[in-house]
Each structure stands twice: as structure tokens, then as C-alpha cells.
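Case study.
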Amino acid sequence: MAEPSPLIEFRAIDKRFFGVDVLKSISFSLAPGRVLGLVGENGAGKSTLMNILGGVLAADSGTMLIRGEPFLPRKPRDAAAAGIAFVHQELNLFTNLSIAENLHLDSFPRRSVYGLRLPLIDRAAVRARSRKLLEQVQLHHDPNTLVSALSPGERQLVEIARSVGAEARLLILDEPTTSLTAPEADRLFEIIKRLRDRGVAIIYISHRLEDVLSLCDDVLVLRDGQVVSSGPIVGYTPERLIREMVGRNVDQLFPAHQAPATLKPMLEVERLSREGVLTDISFTLHRGELLGIAGLMGAGRTELARILFGLDPFDSGRIVIEGQPLIPSPRECIRRGIAFLTENRREEGLLMDDSILNNASLVALPLFARTPLKFIARSALRFRAKETTEATRLRAAGLSRQMARTLSGGNQQKVVLAKWLMKPPAILILDEPTRGIDVGAKQEVYRIIQALADQGTAILMISSEIEELIGTCDRVMVMAAGRIVDRIDRAEFDRHRILCAALNTGVIV
Amino acid sequence: MTVRPRDIAPIIARVAPMLLLAAVMIFFSARSPGFRTLGSARNILVQSSSVAIVAIGMTLVLLTGGIDLSVGAIMFVAAAVAGQLALGKLIPGAGPAPLWLCMVVILLVGLVMGAINALLIARLRMIPFIATLAMLFIGRGLALHITQTQALNLPPALLTIGQSSLIGVPFPIWLLIIVAATAHLTLTQTPFGRQLYALGNNPDAARKAGLPVARLLASVYILSGLCAAIAGVVSVAQLGAISPTFGSQREFAAVAAAVLGGTSLFGGRGSVFPGSILGAVLIQSVESGLTMTNADPYIYPIVIGGIIFIAVLIDRLRASGETR
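After joint prediction, the assembly is written out as follows.
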């Protein structure tokens, strides 16, 4: 069978950071009209590889070829000029501009008078072209709508429309489904397939292996900066992908479960309500207990967490911590020993431009400044931070040299958790602690969470992954439309029951 | 659904600058008959034109998330060089230069100083606040040296220009209209303008989208320098002299005008028209109103400060109503 000539070819690409090999002799090629699934743990080198392709980083050695011609991008513009378009995990749109303006920002059609091109935007042409592009991604909005008014899924479609408009020959999608609802994701897959059929080559990066297996034609597995295997998707199963990504069998994804010995109430919530958001929420969280909250997006889970941490107000009800009523404000909550890990670790959980050491020691700092003059015992702090980050199996080049920004998503989450390991909080609220991180990192995050519970921390864990709640929690509450609709003990955990309750088809308890 | 204050706040915030201006107008009209004449309105416009032109340049800079603190100093240097040229003291033995040449020199000096800011910020990646702060000190020092800390009394022909008018519209207002219309058109109708908004909204994404970020940044500082120089022309023509405090603290008046008009200090939001023009007129209306009602001169800065507080408060409301 004659292989179609490849659109892009990587030949022995190497890259090192701080003396650590990030990519080792990466070689592969991709033909037009194929979807390549790029999988690997966080830190396996996927982002680095894509940054090299996109002209953000330069390879230390090796070559890239586009249609047989050497390709040496020096800046993102060069990659764009070569027909490469990226849709990043964090969207790159301008919320203060309209959809149409976002689509044409670097290629506005101009008005002309008697053949003279004026530096003025031809608004009519922009509208017409935008309509056509939006039609192709099935987004039915007026092109003049501001992007700030769009949902995350819709914004992503705008980004794809932008790459369609740029007539991209290679489209790279990095974790495109993390913030999408199921119907939005289906629509996205349909659009990807349509682009593929038109001859666009697509690199699809995702941790959702089922999506990769159903969508992609080829697959490339990276581990520790090396290609583990690659080839047509037919030979792959989820088990094989996981095995190759992790390099070991993840038979024990969840740590051995240890229920708390005694039930001592830490957090009691009584009939908590907020109009239009929460209705009559009551529950008790005990010392050393892991209580999961299941539910669909918009069920009120994050809203509950925000109210408990004093970020949002409530109308009625009572919150009691260790027998003492709490009037929540973030400051008061922290004083009483509550910690809150938000979904947005990038924005809220980390100092991105600071070292791993400084990030990890942020919470425990006062413990290491016990002398009257409040000097920090640097070496002791460093030792403890090293110990803790090692316990989380953090993959990093240097604790005090490497900035949090340069870590992969899973490793960033480990730093956030390590911060709390150094000084376990009384109550820890976790909102989607494993979102967007890979299997291996997840396993370690679960271990850390269990370790915290073993030390007595009462944990409230919000998750959209039912498996994860079943695997780690002592009890699960299911929320729907701002109410608790079901409560299930570990002995009765049942995936089906949780799902039904979340969809609110079950009986309201 | 019930209407909550959270929904109304952004709407109030959007029309707030106009409401504020209307309130000021009504207040002073009620207290001083002189204030509610056409002549007084025209006066306010003439007197606000210099600040308004500086504020237009400042708006471009603020849209990118930067700031230009050197505008007052640029005005001073440009005017000092041109003034000495007009008096024939800059180049010994050259004799007084014609006025048109002096005007050209003012604009050139503004462009050059703006270009230095641009180089520092866009190419050498200095923080705009620091780079232009340094330029402020250097500029004022340089201008004091050029004028030898003396007030320069310029040829009377200049004042005649300042007081001339075309079809009933005074010269400073003509300049303001031209600059404002050009800037407004640029911001709303050209690719360059829309890219400025994009850059201010999300610099990282702008870079990834392949926008010419360095060129955009450089352009706004050069244009800000040019606007400052044009404002220098207006002020010189109005005053007929260049004192050692010429253009002093004009940067703050310009930032205040822009912020009053709804421009964000964090970039990506704001407008020349109505925005910054409205802000400049608002400040001048208050000053004129206070003068006409014979208020204590020491109270002026206090009132202006209070109005800026109100503007920033409104800005908070607007930001909280916004979704990112």
C-alpha cells in the first residue's frame, strides 16, 4: 500500500531543560487527512514537542520537515505562515472583541475606493466571512456578539473557526474537551472529522483515552520524552495505552482505603440555602473522613464550596466547625483551618513565577519561623519541602531553580497539594483535584489525599468522575439543581445509582 | 427573573461619565448665570483641548495596559526647543526661525521622545511605568537646561494664531477635532485599532495569534509623544510663553481624563470618543465652574481628586459586572 506523502515529519528531535532531557530523539510523521492521537502522562513531553512545532521553543537538535521541506520556525508567526494552527487548552481569544473581530484579527479585509486599499476595515466583508466560518463549526451566533458572552465550548468553536479561516493544513488541539459538556464534545468531534475529510492533518492531545480511541486514525505514545509506540489505532486498547503511558500496570489506581476509626464531627452544615443556587443543604463531615460530592456541571457543587469558604454569601442556614459556629470569610476560614483547592490551580493555587520550593513552603512558613525575630530556618524548610515533594513523586529539575510555570499540569497539582501536606489543614475542600491530569499523576494525587485523611484532615471532594469518588471516598453525596438528592455509604457505592441521582431521575431522599 | 442591583450596576457604570458631566453642568448652571452661556461652553472646550489631546494619546497607551508618564515632560522639551528656535537663541547666530518651522520642530521632538519610550518598552522590554517615569525626569531636566530655567516670552504672532478661528471655531478646537476624529476612526475602524484592544485584553494570546506585538506597543508610545507635542503647540499658542512649569503634571490630568471617560488602567477597555474627550471636558467644567462661583483656589485639586475617586469607584462597578 502506497503511503501518502507526509505533511509533517519529525526527525530525531532532542530538547533539554536545565540539563534534564525532556525530549529524546523524537521521530514520527503525519499524513494529510489523518487524526493523530498524542498521548502521554503529564510531563511526558507533549507540550514541549508542540511548542517546538509552534515556534515557541527551538529544538536542541533534529529536524522538522513540512512536505519534505525543512521547517525551522523561530516564532509563532512562522508556524502560522506554514499553515499550522493551535487550539490551546487555555483559550486564546480576546473577550473584549466580537466573534468576527477575533476571527479576523490578523487578516482584516480592507475597504477600497477606486482600487485604492484604505487602512479601514471592511465590516461587511468581515461579517460575511465570519458567517461562513461560523457555519462550518455550527455556531449559530451573530458575528458581532462579544466573545465574553460565549460559553467555554462556544469559545473553543470560535478558535477552531479561526484556524479554518486561516486555511490551516495542520490543526493541533490540546485537551479540547476539558471544559466542554458532552453534546459540545460530540459536536467538536464531528467538526474534527469533517476537517479531516477535507485533508487537514490533526494532532489531538487528550487524557480521555476513549475519545482518542474513537476519534483518531493513528496514535503516538510518549513517556519520559521518548516515543514508546506509534501506529494505526486499530491495535490499541485503553489498557495498552495506559500500560504504555505509565510504563507499569495501573491495577491499583486508588490507594488502600482506610475509614476513620472514630466519628468526630468537624464540619456541620445545617439547612444552608441561597436563592437560586442552593436549597436546604445539610451534612456532617467528620475528622479523617473523605466525603465526595457528585453531580453534573451547574448542580451547585462549586457554589457550595465557595459559600463554605466565605467567597460567596448565603441567605439562611448554619455552618459549624468543631462545635463553634462559623461566619465564613476566607480569612476566618483559613484561621479555623479550612483549605480550599479550586478548579483553577493556574490562577488561584500557585505563584506561577516562583520556585517550587517557595510555592510548596508557602503555607507552612510560620512553622519554620519560630525564633522571636521570625527568621526562617531555611535549611530545615528546604529539607522538609524536599521530603514532601519527593513523597509526591514530583518530576522537576530543581526545587529552587524551576518555576511553577514550567511544570506540567499534573506536577503543578502535586505542588499545590504538597503545600498542604507540609501543614495538614483541619478541613480540606477539593474542587476537581484531578481535572486535566493523567493517570499516573492521578494515582499520586489520590495517595496524597488519602495520606492527608489518615493524618486527620476532613476532606470534602467535588468531582465529576464517578470512578474517582467511588475509589477514594467514605461517603458520597449527590447534588442536582442545588439540592442534595442522594447520600450513599461506601458499602453501597453504585455507579449507576450516582449517575441516576445526578441526572435527577431517582427518588429524592 | 427579578432585576438585581448586580444587573443594573454595569448599565449605570456605562453611562456614568455622561451622568457625571450632566450633574456638574446642572450644578454650576444653577449657581452661576455666567456658566450657562454659549461663550462659557466654548471656553471650556478651548481650555480643555490641550489636556484632551494628551489624553487621547494616553488612551492609546492605556488600551495596551501601559502608561505614559512622560507626556508633560515631552510637551515641555518640545516647546522649549521650538521656543528657543523662535527666539533665535538655540543656534547662536542663526537668527529667529519662522513660526512654521518651530511648529514642525515641536512635532518632531515629540515623535523622537515617543520613539525613545517605544524603544525602551517595546524593544528593551522595560516596564512602561518605570521607563516613562525616567523619561519624565530626564525630559524636565533637559527642558530646564534648554530654557535656562527662564520663562520664554514668545513672538506675539503666536498668540494671534492661538486666538484665531475658522468658521467660528477656535484654532485649539479645530486641532482637537482633527486629532480626536483620527484617533477615534483608527481605534474603531482600522485593523491597528482593533489589535490594540486585543493586545490589552490578553497580551499572551496576542503574541500567540501572531499579532505584531512589539510594533503595536512601539506605535502607541510614538503616537502618545506626538499627541503630547500637538498639545504643546496648543498650549504655547494659548499662553504665548513657556514657563518652567510648562506641561507640569499634565500626565496626571491626562490619566484622570482617560479614567473618568471609562478607560481601564489594565488595558483592553476604553475609547477616545466619547471616553477621554468627555473626561477632559468634565475636569475643565469643574475647574471653570469653581472659578465662576469664586471658590477658593485651594479647593480645586480637592474637588478633582474627589471626582477621580468617584470615577474609579464606577470603574469597579463596571469591572464586577463584566465577564471575562
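Observations recorded in class. The first strand of chain B starts at residue 152 and ends at 153. The mean pLDDT of chain B is 88. We will return to this complex in the next lecture.
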